[in-house]
């Protein structure tokens, strides 16, 4: 129904209960302009409709446009209670009867004579405004001057008087007058609410902390809670608790949220998914966020909390919880935007080691309650974050190994010689792998032991898949040079030395793949040399060989190969028995996989190969010498045997046991006293118990001794070979193998020898 029209400017008799002046509250000192200044009214005049409309319009604009949503809600709440009360008043319902009791001074009534009023008066005088001056100042001016307690006490006085008039049925004839005056009170309450929020928002700003304003906020919140301890039974909106403590807490939360949002404003770390420089952006943002939160909380400790605590109001825990909640929400946004394992590493590290550190806030003020920061991540959220990190990590590490392999292949294709460092061929393979594992292990270990173990397991599995691919690529025909093979052998030994020794639990299973790769590379080296020198062996023991030095090109290749071995690192663990230290032969395991050979034993293996191939060519010659040619061939064999022995000794071979093989065959070939041939055979069999009957036949075929003498020598050598077998065979000589690997086919000469 339409509201009755009343005159807004007519003077009325002064009522004792009427407030001194009612004006719309201004928001801070900045609202003291001519536009927002309260309009002067004669003493005792009531606010007319125009004044009410202007006041309502200004506060509504601030509530809806400037104030947070919580303040607009309070305004709507005040209006709802107002019109509910109007309905009861116009119907002469129980509201008028029940509110009559509120006219008496009480907890919700006027408190001008109370101790709190005296306290407020004392505080006003300390700020330059005494009780007399406060009584002559409008509520809006008091709010604009941030004399919140004085403004609240005046509103309490107005509220008490208005309730008393309502209880005395003063507004029966003009209920709209009550509505206007009640709305004015509500608007001033809303103005106080806004001012509380404004003070909270300004607290952490660049202008510093206004300790007096904070203390005033604390006192007015406590005073309102005392004045309105609980909602009235009759539902009267004027005596309804304003919830300023909750409003203050909400304002603190909004302030913390705004402050946290200032960190990294304008940056979008997730804007470029997968970008390589995204992680530094996240790290920069988190560093800025951590610095801002630390400074703000330290400011709360040093200045804000003491100001509130002086009025008996707790502030530290509220600010701590507000900032923690704001940081947690910002952190969740960053987690959702993460697009790489680097970003997730940075987030986990910051949450664990920076924000979760007991030193995050620096030295604690002893006057502030010691409240540690709660965990930023719940256990289930942290588990999901680590799972996401592991998923990204698997892809990233596999990609890293692909890049390492591609870099090696590019270097091989470019025919770039490997670097020589400390006398050894070096490739970036081992350093790249070790650095990759070390960086991820360090980053994961800083977060948790579990994540570190998982990361090491991922690296070990990726390396296990990488080694066969690397070996296959390196052993492709023509893919890499001999120095590259040596550098790769050294890289495998570096990995065994560093990774397996440092992380035995995670990389222990890679021992066999690394050893297998090393052996394969060593075998490839020897096979490469063998392929180069094999044609040179075919010209030995020929007519041309008698008059030419055909051994020199072969030995030149051997010397060049030995120079490669000087740049090859010894393996991590050497196999015992028959090694270089005792001058024995190349150690050979009877069962299981072979072990890598040290450079010394590789040289001895090469020495054995040269002697073996020389004997193989001598025992199956393409041409058989007779007469003077046979004697010349015998002499040349002895000279070349000495040259081979001297060369390998100079290179460092200690396989002296190989020195008698070629001379013994040469002696048998050139022996003029046939009775001494048996003695040479005895020396040969005792020195090389792996010799067989076929080898003896081939040696005898180099001579024309006759059937009877050959049969006698065969029987004699067979007895010697049986005795050697009883004595332990090849085992008695420390695994020295020479003749056993020389394969012979039955030739016409051997058949004649047997006949």
Keywords:
755 residues, Tetracycline Repressor, domain 2, two-stranded antiparallel sheet, rod-shaped
Unreliable runs, pLDDT <50, ≥5 residues? 1-133, 268-277, 574-592
Distance between the termini: 144 Å
Query: Largest sheet, described in full?
Result: 2 strands, antiparallel
Record the strand order, biggest sheet: 1-2
Number of helices: 28
Topology, number of strands: 2
Strand/helix succession: HHHHHHHHHHHHHHEEHHHHHHHHHHHHHH
- Portion of residues in beta strands equals under 5%
Rg, please?
51 Å
Q: Any chance you could write out the topology, listing elements then pairs?
A:
Elements: H1 49-66, H2 69-90, H3 94-98, H4 115-126, H5 131-135, H6 139-144, H7 148-167, H8 175-203, H9 211-227, H10 244-262, H11 278-309, H12 316-337, H13 341-354, H14 379-413, E1 419-421, E2 424-426, H15 428-447, H16 449-474, H17 482-502, H18 504-507, H19 511-537, H20 543-547, H21 551-565, H22 599-619, H23 628-651, H24 661-670, H25 677-687, H26 693-700, H27 707-726, H28 748-754
Antiparallel strand pairs: 1-2
Helix pairs in contact: 1-8, 2-8, 7-8, 7-9, 8-10, 9-11, 10-12, 11-12, 11-13, 13-14, 13-15, 14-15, 14-16, 15-16, 15-17, 16-19, 17-19, 19-21, 19-22, 21-23, 22-23, 23-24, 24-25, 25-27, 26-27, 26-28
């Amino acid at each position: 129904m339409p509201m009755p029209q009343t005159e807004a400017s007519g003077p009325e008799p002064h009522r004792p209960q009427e407030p001194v002046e009612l004006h719309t509250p201004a928001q801070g000192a900045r609202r003291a302009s001519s536009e927002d200044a309260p309009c002067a009214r004669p003493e005792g005049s009531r606010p007319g409709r125009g004044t009410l409309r202007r006041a309502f319009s200004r506060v509504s604009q601030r509530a809806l446009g400037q104030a947070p949503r919580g303040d607009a809600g309070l305004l709507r709440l005040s209006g709802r209670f107002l019109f509910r009360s109007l309905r009861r008043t116009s119907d002469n319902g129980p509201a008028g009867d029940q509110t009559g009791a509120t006219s008496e001074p009480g907890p919700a009534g006027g408190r001008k004579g109370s101790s709190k009023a005296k306290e407020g008066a004392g505080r006003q005088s300390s700020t330059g405004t005494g009780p007399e001056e406060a009584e002559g100042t409008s509520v809006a001016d008091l709010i604009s001057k941030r004399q919140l307690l004085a403004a609240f006490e005046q509103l309490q006085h107005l509220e008490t008087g208005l309730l008393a008039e309502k209880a005395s049925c003063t507004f029966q004839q003009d209920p709209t007058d009550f509505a206007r005056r009640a709305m004015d009170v509500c608007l001033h309450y809303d103005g106080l609410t806004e001012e509380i929020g404004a003070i909270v928002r300004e607290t952490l700003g660049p202008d510093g902390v206004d300790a007096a304003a904070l203390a005033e906020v604390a006192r007015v919140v406590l005073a309102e809670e005392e004045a309105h301890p609980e909602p009235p039974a009759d539902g009267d909106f004027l005596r309804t608790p304003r919830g300023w403590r909750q409003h203050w807490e909400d304002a603190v939360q909004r302030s913390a949220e705004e402050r946290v949002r200032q960190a990294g404003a304008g940056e979008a770390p997730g804007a470029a998914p997968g970008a390589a420089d995204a992680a530094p952006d996240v790290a920069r943002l988190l560093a800025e966020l951590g610095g801002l939160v630390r400074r703000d909380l330290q400011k709360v400790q040093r200045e804000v909390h003491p100001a509130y605590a002086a009025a008996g109001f707790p502030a530290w825990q509220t600010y701590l919880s507000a900032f923690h909640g704001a940081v947690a929400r910002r952190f969740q946004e960053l987690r959702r935007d993460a697009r790489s394992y680097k970003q997730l590493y940075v987030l986990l590290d910051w949450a664990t080691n920076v924000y979760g550190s007991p030193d995050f806030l620096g030295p604690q003020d002893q006057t502030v309650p010691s409240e540690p920061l709660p965990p930023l991540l719940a256990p289930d959220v942290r588990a999901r974050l680590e799972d996401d990190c592991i998923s990204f990590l698997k892809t990233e590490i596999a990609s890293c190994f692909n890049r390492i392999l591609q870099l090696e292949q590019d270097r091989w294709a470019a025919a770039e010689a490997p670097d020589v460092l400390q006398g050894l061929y070096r490739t970036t393979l081992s350093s790249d792998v070790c650095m990759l594992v070390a960086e991820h292990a360090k980053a994961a270990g800083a977060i948790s032991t579990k994540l570190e173990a998982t990361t090491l397991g991922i690296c070990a599995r990726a390396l296990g898949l990488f080694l066969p691919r690397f070996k296959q690529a390196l052993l492709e025909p023509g893919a890499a040079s001999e120095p590259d093979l040596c550098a790769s052998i050294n890289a495998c030994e570096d990995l065994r030395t560093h990774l397996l020794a440092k992380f035995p639990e995670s990389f222990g299973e890679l021992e066999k793949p690394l050893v297998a790769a090393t052996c394969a590379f060593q075998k490839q080296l020897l096979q490469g040399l063998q392929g180069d020198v094999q044609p040179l062996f075919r010209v030995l023991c020929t007519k041309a060989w008698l008059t030419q030095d055909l051994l020199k090109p072969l030995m030149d290749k051997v010397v060049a190969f030995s120079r490669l071995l000087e740049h090859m690192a010894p393996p991590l663990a050497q196999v015992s028995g028959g090694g270089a230290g005792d001058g024995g032969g190349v150690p050979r395991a009877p069962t299981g996989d072979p072990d890598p050979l040290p450079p010394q034993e590789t040289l001895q293996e090469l020495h054995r190969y040269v002697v073996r191939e020389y004997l193989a060519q001598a025992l199956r010659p393409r041409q058989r010498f007779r007469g003077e040619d046979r004697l010349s061939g015998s002499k040349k064999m002895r000279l070349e045997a000495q040259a081979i022995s001297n060369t390998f000794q100079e290179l460092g071979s200690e396989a002296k046991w190989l020195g008698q093989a070629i001379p013994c065959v040469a002696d048998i070939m050139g022996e003029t006293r046939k009775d001494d041939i048996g003695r040479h055979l005895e020396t040969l069999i005792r020195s090389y118990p792996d010799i067989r009957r076929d080898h003896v036949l081939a040696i005898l075929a180099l001579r024309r001794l006759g059937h009877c003498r050959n049969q006698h020598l065969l029987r004699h050598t067979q007895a010697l070979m049986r005795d050697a077998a009883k004595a332990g065979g090849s085992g008695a000589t420390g695994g020295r193998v020479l003749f056993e690997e020389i394969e012979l086919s039955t030739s016409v000469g051997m058949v004649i020898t047997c006949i």
